[in-house]
TrEMBL record:
<dbReference type="Pfam" id="PF13365">
    <property type="entry name" value="Trypsin_2"/>
</dbReference>
<dbReference type="InterPro" id="IPR009003">
    <property type="entry name" value="Peptidase_S1_PA"/>
</dbReference>
<keyword id="KW-0645">Protease</keyword>
<dbReference type="InterPro" id="IPR051201">
    <property type="entry name" value="Chloro_Bact_Ser_Proteases"/>
</dbReference>
<dbReference type="GO" id="GO:0004252">
    <property type="term" value="F:serine-type endopeptidase activity"/>
</dbReference>
<dbReference type="InterPro" id="IPR001940">
    <property type="entry name" value="Peptidase_S1C"/>
</dbReference>
<keyword id="KW-0378">Hydrolase</keyword>
<feature type="domain" description="PDZ">
    <location>
        <begin position="277"/>
        <end position="331"/>
    </location>
</feature>
<feature type="signal peptide">
    <location>
        <begin position="1"/>
        <end position="23"/>
    </location>
</feature>
<dbReference type="GO" id="GO:0006508">
    <property type="term" value="P:proteolysis"/>
</dbReference>
<keyword id="KW-0732">Signal</keyword>
<dbReference type="Pfam" id="PF13180">
    <property type="entry name" value="PDZ_2"/>
</dbReference>
<dbReference type="InterPro" id="IPR036034">
    <property type="entry name" value="PDZ_sf"/>
</dbReference>
<dbReference type="InterPro" id="IPR001478">
    <property type="entry name" value="PDZ"/>
</dbReference>
<protein>
    <submittedName>
        <fullName>Do/DeqQ family serine protease</fullName>
    </submittedName>
</protein>
Length: 381
């Protein structure tokens, strides 16, 4: 055999050996076992335990908690019935509020400040201000306040509450029992909940349900996701004792934002109406109506000359979506419709005799007027 052939053969053998060694280390290396705890010190064992516990946590809430708490305020409302000879906190109502604008706009619940002749706000840095009521909405239990601070304030921005999913982590921030800047965590337990807690006939209840601990004093506070986005205003608890029992409810952020913008710009909320009487769909109705599942809302009646009738909807039609957002219950229908104003056109998806159809409807107010609201600035001009 020639020398050149021997050299080539030797090189091939070396290459084959190197590839075999690499394959063994890559694919057949034994698993690295956990360190024997008996060989670790007490401090090292504690560190391993802490790291294992941290790995099991669903999320780190510290960043969002730090960002949110400065924008949640303590609120004390003095009802008109309180005697002028008792000017102290006796007889007052306490709650929470959320700063939603750096210039001092604060969102809270209407029931917290109802019939108050004075509203006192305490910021996270202990500064105190008297607040002015900009507007209130009984149908959603929301109110908008205004203070005049020195300089800009920390505030929260609304996130997309429609994107929330059941099982997602959320934080409730408020002042239960006057304990300032209290943060509790929980998950979204349900959406589109109606619990008949609001009194008006045109009430809009499509709450986010959560198991985060919410108690008296949390009303008007913030419900945020782990990114610190405002996705709800904490409003109610469902409890036989008046204390937290695992059921808390918040006004969805998308609905709250629309209502608060109206209060800011117009001083009132004039809602669009469709003029249709509706109810949820059960399994038996879904089968008889040719639906694939029990979803949407069934039209049981139409008002004369209503937007629904003008648009072409009929009794026994099943509305399944508004502007592409699916409707699965009467409360979800009310919530979606409440996001629009008189004069807006919406696309309604519906099922009639088993056929999926759609049409556009011009919304009107409760007086059947399609004209849009006029802002305060426009009136002044």
């Amino acid at each position: 055999m020639k020398v050149s052939q021997l050299i080539t053969l030797f090189a091939c053998c070396l290459l084959s050996a190197a590839l075999a060694l690499l394959a063994q280390q890559t694919f057949f290396a034994p698993a690295v076992s956990a360190p024997d705890s008996s060989s670790l010190s007490v401090a090292e064992r504690n560190d391993v335990a802490r790291r294992s516990f941290a790995k099991g946590l669903p999320a780190d809430f510290t960043t969002s908690a730090k960002a949110v708490t400065p924008a949640v305020v303590f609120l004390r409302a003095y009802p008109s019935s309180v005697s002028r000879f008792e000017p102290g906190p006796r007889g007052s109502i306490t709650g929470s509020g959320v700063i939603i604008d750096e210039r001092g706009l604060i969102a809270t619940n209407r029931h917290v400040i109802e019939d108050a002749n004075r509203i006192r706000i305490v910021l996270g840095d202990k500064r105190e201000y008297d607040a002015t009521l900009i507007g209130e909405d009984e149908s959603t239990d929301l109110a908008l306040l205004k203070i005049k601070p020195e300089g800009k304030l920390p505030y929260l921005t609304f996130g997309d509450s429609d994107s929330l999913q059941v099982g997602e982590w959320v934080l409730a921030v408020g002042n239960p029992f006057s304990l300032n800047s209290t943060v509790t965590a929980g998950i979204v337990s349900g959406k589109g909940r109606s619990i008949d807690v609001l009194e008006p006939e045109d009430r809009i209840e499509s709450f986010i349900q959560t198991d985060a601990a919410v108690n008296p004093g949390n009303s008007g506070g913030a419900l945020v996701n782990t990114s610190g986005d405002l996705i709800g205003i904490n409003t109610a608890i469902l409890s036989s004792s008046g204390r937290h029992q695992g059921f808390a409810f918040a006004i969805p952020g998308n609905l709250a934002q629309r209502v608060l913008e109206d209060l800011r710009d117009f001083g009132e909320v004039r809602r669009a109406v469709l003029g249709a009487y509706i109810q949820g769909v059960n399994a038996a109705q879904a089968k008889s109506l040719g639906l694939k599942a029990a979803r949407g809302v069934l039209i049981t009646g139409l008002r004369d000359n209503s937007p629904a009738l003008r648009g072409g909807l009929k009794v026994d039609d099943v509305i399944t979506a508004i502007n592409g957002t699916a409707i699965n219950s009467a409360s979800e229908f009310q919530e979606q419709l409440s996001r629009y104003r008189p004069g807006d056109r919406i696309r309604v998806n519906y099922v009639r005799n088993g056929r999926a159809l759609s049409l556009k409807v011009l919304l009107r107010d409760k007086n059947n007027n399609p004209r849009k609201l006029v802002g305060r600035e426009e009136v002044q001009d």
